[in-house]
Amino acid sequence: MAPKSEQRKSSCKACHQRRVRCDGQTPCGSCSRARKPLTCEYSAPKSPEASRPVHRGTACLFCR
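== Zn(2)-C6 fungal-type domain-containing protein ==
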C-alpha cells in the first residue's frame, strides 16, 4: 500500500467507467488484471474553488 501522499482519492477513468474498485496505484490493480494498463489514467485534481457551490442571491441577504 502506498503512503498517504501517493494515494489518490478518486478512481481512474477506466475503473469509474467499469464501476469497479480502484486501488489508486499507477496502473491500478483492476486495469492490470484486465490487461489494460495503458488505459489507466487519472483526471487532474479539482481546485477548491471549483468544488464550492455558487449560491446566487445570498450576498443580498447580508445587505438587508
